[in-house]
Amino acid sequence: MITKRIIPCLDIRDGRVVKGVNFEGVKDVSDPVALASFYNDSGADELVFYDITASSEGRALFTDVLEKIASCIFIPLTVGGSINTVDDFERVLKCGADKVSVNSGAIRNPNLIKEAAKKYGNQCVVLSMDVKRVDGKFTIFSKGGRENTGIDAIEWARKGVLDGAGEIVVNSIDTDGVKQGFDIEMLEAISNVANVPIIASGGAGCMEHFKDLFNAVPGVDAGLAASIFHFKQVEIMDLKRYLIENGIEMRI
Amino acid sequence: MIAVIDYGVGNLFSLCSSLKYLSIDSVVTRDKNIIEKADKIILPGVGAFGDASDKLKETGMFDFLQEQAATGKPFLGICLGMQLLFEKGYEYGEHEGLGLIKGKVIPIESVLKEPLKIPQMGWNKLDIVKKDALLKYTNQGDYVYFVHSYFATDCNDSISSTTEYGATLTASVSNNNVFGAQFHPEKSGTVGLNMLKAFNEI
Prior knowledge:
Strand order of the largest sheet of chain A: 1-3-4-5-6-9-10-11
CATH superfamily of chain A: Aldolase class I
Shape of chain A: globular
Structural class of chain A: alpha/beta
Oligomer: heterodimer
Order of helices and strands of chain B: EHEHEHHEHEEEEEEEEEEH
Distance between the termini of chain A: 14 Å
CATH topology of chain B: Rossmann fold
Number of domains of chain A: 1
CATH topology of chain A: TIM Barrel
Number of helices of chain B: 6
CATH architecture of chain A: Alpha-Beta Barrel
Number of helices of chain A: 10
Helix content of chain B: 25-40%
Helix content of chain A: 25-40%
Shape of chain B: globular
CATH class of chain B: Alpha Beta
Strand content of chain B: 25-35%
Largest sheet of chain A: 8 strands, parallel, barrel
CATH architecture of chain B: 3-Layer(aba) Sandwich
CATH superfamily of chain B: Class I glutamine amidotransferase (GATase) domain
Number of strands of chain A: 11
Largest interface: A-B, 28 and 29 residues
Strand order of the largest sheet of chain B: 2-1-3-4-14-13-12-9
């Protein structure tokens, strides 16, 4: 059977990894190529890169870095951040991305998912959504979680899949950074309406949280995290072995 | 040298990078002279069967690749390129494949014993049925990366490995000099790189 996936996520600004990371054996921890190689060797099933650069010079650095990573790492690579047009898809796909994730871009341009899916196939288009409870309703936030769009998250997921998104990343703003576990309730609600792979993000603090996630919501296909991997609170190989011991299929 | 057939479908970045990484000489081309001189051929592909079959015909590759395969040259189809090796594909109608391997390509959905997400997207395990030259370095239970909604069937004689996804699905095939991988070796980490290496050594 297909395995559940463990995905580390790297934020890149001006071609460098943001967030202090400290690894033995990785000389330059803000070098995305070195860190990506480290995760590849550690058993990551896939890598996600978010370009959080504001300038066009920084964006050029990002595609350079992406090209370098894709030339030496042969697992699926997903790229997001500043994806607003079909041309942005083209820009990162030709540098070696396999999937492209859209977030605010899909809110600004309601046809973006449809157009990109038509051109590159559904498997290439990932809808990334930042979700927060507002008056008890799951609501979509944009601009890195700062702006309430008022859009209902369940409807947004449904529309995304209809338009051709082949995968959904659900980032719970409510559990993000708290490290008390993934947002099971939110993930369940979204996986009930979206019959595409769901990647859970936000809230991982320890290995048990991944076990709870995969056991509680069978519709979730992958767990994504950043800081617990960057700060070595959890080692990917240990995590995978632990999940296998608990009856969850993993690639080792 | 390996000729990677360029017929306008799919992203060849990873495939070319992985061949380069392995120091395997390759060229992306639709130039018949170059393909004729190449000692191996890879047919890549992502997308729909009918479209791809039409594009092979439009670029003059369809009959030419059949002739090339008949010369005994090692030939590898990847993902949709693997599906095109078969006689027929049933994706949005019935379409003609290259017919280099007996069998047809049908929707995974039609054989599932339980409802599962389509496409199958992710890492799944190989069950080796026949250890052919492509699987020289591959071990029973190795994981590879799949993205597909259709699979090859009625091809029992040529199956070299299968995978389980709600049913037993064809993962790789071979028939003399013609090989096919439903998964993406260029996205399957070391296991995949070793498969490309094995192909180069045939």
